[in-house]
Amino acid sequence: MPDFTDKLSPAQPDGPTTLAHERAQSNVSVKELSEYLLSSDGFLQRQARILPIIQHEPLFSKEKQQNLSRPERFKLGLARAKLLRRLKDKHEWNYDEYKMAEYLVDDVSPYFLHLEMFITTIREQASEEQRAYWMPLIESWKIIGAYAQTELGHGSNVRGLELEARWDSQSKEFILHSPTLTASKWWNGSLGRIANHAIVVAQLLLPKPGLPNQYVSHGPHPFIVQVRDMKTHLPLEGIVVGDIGPKYGYITMDNAYMLFDHFRIPHSAMLSRYSSVDPHTGIYTKPEQPALVYGSLTYVRAQIVHHARLVLARAVTIAVRYTAIRRQFQDRDGDKGGPEMAVLDYPTVQIRILPLLATAFALHYTGLSMRSIYQDTRKDVERGDFRSLAHMHSMSSGLKSLCTMLAADGVETCRRAMGGHGFGGGGGLIQLNNDYLSKPTVEGDNWMITQQVAAYLIKKMTAAANSPDGIASDETDSIFKQFIRNRRSTKSDEAKRDMLTCDRDIVKSFELRATVLAYEAYEQRVHKKQSWNSLLIQLHKLSKAQSQHILVKTFFEALSTEKSLSDSAKSILWELYRLFALFTMENEGFEFFRCNAVTRSDLDSLPARVQELMSRIRPHAVNLVDSWMIPDYLLDSSLGRHDGRVYEDLYNRAHRLNPLNQITFNPNYWEDEIVKGSKDSGASILSKL
Amino acid sequence: MPDFTDKLSPAQPDGPTTLAHERAQSNVSVKELSEYLLSSDGFLQRQARILPIIQHEPLFSKEKQQNLSRPERFKLGLARAKLLRRLKDKHEWNYDEYKMAEYLVDDVSPYFLHLEMFITTIREQASEEQRAYWMPLIESWKIIGAYAQTELGHGSNVRGLELEARWDSQSKEFILHSPTLTASKWWNGSLGRIANHAIVVAQLLLPKPGLPNQYVSHGPHPFIVQVRDMKTHLPLEGIVVGDIGPKYGYITMDNAYMLFDHFRIPHSAMLSRYSSVDPHTGIYTKPEQPALVYGSLTYVRAQIVHHARLVLARAVTIAVRYTAIRRQFQDRDGDKGGPEMAVLDYPTVQIRILPLLATAFALHYTGLSMRSIYQDTRKDVERGDFRSLAHMHSMSSGLKSLCTMLAADGVETCRRAMGGHGFGGGGGLIQLNNDYLSKPTVEGDNWMITQQVAAYLIKKMTAAANSPDGIASDETDSIFKQFIRNRRSTKSDEAKRDMLTCDRDIVKSFELRATVLAYEAYEQRVHKKQSWNSLLIQLHKLSKAQSQHILVKTFFEALSTEKSLSDSAKSILWELYRLFALFTMENEGFEFFRCNAVTRSDLDSLPARVQELMSRIRPHAVNLVDSWMIPDYLLDSSLGRHDGRVYEDLYNRAHRLNPLNQITFNPNYWEDEIVKGSKDSGASILSKL
Question: Can you tell me the distance from the alpha carbon of A556 to that of B375, in angstroms, rounded to the nearest whole number?
């Protein structure tokens, strides 16, 4: 309905004018930088190809989805997921193209587990015969599967799972049974309403040889189980399964609970590539190489590390564009009648956003490196060489913990830096934030898994201390041995470093701090025999220090070996490197100081140095975020639009797209009527549920 | 529908057993402590009185509300708010009792602004005649009002508001007009769908004397304006008003946008207690004492500070009870077959939750103190004595910034400490978290308002430096003068302190650090004439240091003067004091060190000292959170239930209360059908909006 507001414009200078100015003032080429960042694996080209197809489908419109109820939103998510799969068939998308489409639509797919853990587990843990039977059904989506490991009472400690798979040697079947409520499967994605099959992880109980009524547990094993009828789609008898209900995010995912009541499955249900039960004797065959189970967990963690850069880049894109446009207060020392300042020109806004801009780049290089180390290690393992596995497992654990923390906290920091409008739905961060808040917990809790890094480093330090003069087996060993030799000779580790001007010295400083913390942990655990649990806080700090060292070192090495970039691009990347590293150092200043990894005078200079770096990066901020090439469709943000039409879009969402404005309410408290002219009352709303 | 899961129990030891053990092992009396904390102003008694009335009403059941859409949830919120008002009439509740009922129901009321800023502004800024007319209408809720100040383009900088109120000397009316889109009112609560009146803040434009066609602005002024028809409840002609759409939280609040097209309001609309326009001459009368406008802003900030303790206590209650019950992994150094450990026994869980438990108590004392300082200052001001106003304004700004940050971040820290189940709707933190995330921004952005603290302290330091030997005007002046005298005599400030054993020395350390930062800011701004904006980060740190000093000092003084408590209660409160202060110090270690506020050796000892304090507090954790007496109805949390039936309740919510489980879906991607046996498709869901 047209009204007088249709012709109004925002106050000048408006967003488009401001962003045009921002883009013109920087010599950073968005084209060059975006290709450098995103085209090596075809990401950019893929995005350009898939985006118009997605935007063409009305079902993928995000305009009003925030207004839906959980059941409606889930239905929409399922409808979209079906359409995505049909588009895959129609356009003959490969896996990467399909994933790109999912990334742009930005709904967690109810089929997610089918495509990831379900298929991966069959591929890796099923026997050849099992694979031959199941893979065609899975790939054609004739069956939909999930992965049911976590239980109501047990997550990280997989050995504590309570669900039982008891071998019945009479009928040659396994009997799945949930002895307690806490044995209920819980959190298992795609299983709550959708999947008709699942990998079910249960304690394998076999009769003791010679004592057929006594059973012994051989630990958790995976079974493939049909859980719903293929026609009615109702749970099979003996199974209770459903969706666990609303969560912070993942609104389109049906995380499940599932219990079994003496539910019988055939011998062939047990995935038997590595371990098996002889159907005639009931005798168990153990897997030869237990380390193999590392594989999929580490893969998922590496994926999460690689993904973090785009999450943070998305939040930073919105925050930089909006705070460049948003104006507030005149300069206190300037003319009273002057224009208001862009809020991004306030150092108190810069200190929240620009280090995160730098962090997105740090995450980028480490994400790439993590992926290639994963691929190398996988090749080694397939050749039967397991030496690099422990390193990769440690690295992926520490980085998963640190990088998801940086990205999750970074999204919220960006949101708050945007002030009032950051709290609104037009910011574009609500769903991202709600979904991403799962990441600090899933695939290994961020505090729990840092123990794996510390245990690895203590082992490495023990080896180095036992043989400081031997030949180093790898880079960590070499650093640790040198540290031990320096201690022995009372030679100071802190060779004069100049962190304020020498980029390589910054890496050395991070290296020394991580090494000192590793040595302290080694001393306390190995020499002083302190209990593991009493050291946990310290071990967490060690993991963080080591992972920060990796981020800084990887960033430094990538820039040092880069040869193809223009000077302007390279020089701004070096500034981002410095900002990331020195901002990180400032925040943990005392720890660096205590480890002799920074001098007192350098530490005192850090705040000024960080502020100077921010003022150098500031003019390029908009071009730097543009280089991540995150499309408006994905951002779904008034504040972060590429064209800068912030206020027009906020107004449009409020005035034209908000269903609440279709309803006229009755504010009189003495009348039951809620909606003017209708019988709608409070009781009638509740009764709908 | 009954099924085999009805009879299942969780694995042993279950939650009730564990909590009974936790409660028995501590000598802290919940009864004593809760009365000490919450009965002085009748809070506890009020809660006990109101709770059963609320729980008796089906409309206030929270069981399924997370599943509603925004429009449905808003309708429910309005229905509840009406019922609350009717219960107020029925039970003749006073204001505090009504607020208690609202607190327990835990919906932001769509009438909130009517009861707060609308009525307050009329009370404080309307002339006597205006009050006589409006107050009866307001108090009887015959009209519902809102407060429309913030605009799409302007928040904190009130002087930058664009909406115009132009005096028409012909018709003796004001003409309200929005010249741009950014002039649209925005965020104004209770106005989007509900209010029929509003205080509208607009630039007062009056003709220049002798030049009737030229107008001059006299700055923003408040007007009372009818915006909707009292019968049809539709906007009046010349006004466009509506709800801005979904947000992070505040789902039951109709935050508004509103624009005016040459909308005429009578001369009597301008609230004229302090300033007025002569209807005959068009001549403006200025307010005598502009400081008076501080009043309501400071009141709201003081309220927010006081409220923060209960927000954090709620999250900590849930986190402590759940992590005491949740078990994970055996002790790495213990028996392999031993029981799993309660996760609250891991120092890495303690370090996240127990300092926040201590923080809730710190917030309590400062909240009480803030409230009584506000009341004293108000009495002073009403007597015409404005001297304490600047101090109170500075204190309320700094504390609002720090305390809302502690509570908002604390809620999320508690959530993450609860691992996987913390991400679920049964945690009970989703709505609290979403609503509270507004607090770091509203009523003065947390980074912006710290300038007000710094400006105040620089002024105080300047005065002290100019007259270090004069008589001190207040406590801050006395501390600052002493600091200047010590500097002059090169006497060291850091008299030997022993933070690890002397509680008073801890306060001294926080005092010195804040004073050194104030002195540095004074030097840079007053002597070195550095620009204000270049100092902003440093000024923010100063405000934080000063506010932390207030929290620590107030905690210390409250315990030092407390005489009625038992030894066991007092001794645990002292441990909480130490934990709060030393944990805070450890996190900002280098700043304390740089300010000579802590010795290097004390700083090195802090981590061990903090860990020791946590192990002393740990056995009392459950009784300490019990003492906040937050009812299960308010917690609305499976994880935080007083009876410890965590798993039973999680399962009940999932299996019996989740409407998604009423729907059977069709997972076949080649079929459009979403819901099995119905015509529901993706397009039909979108078309509902």
Answer: 57
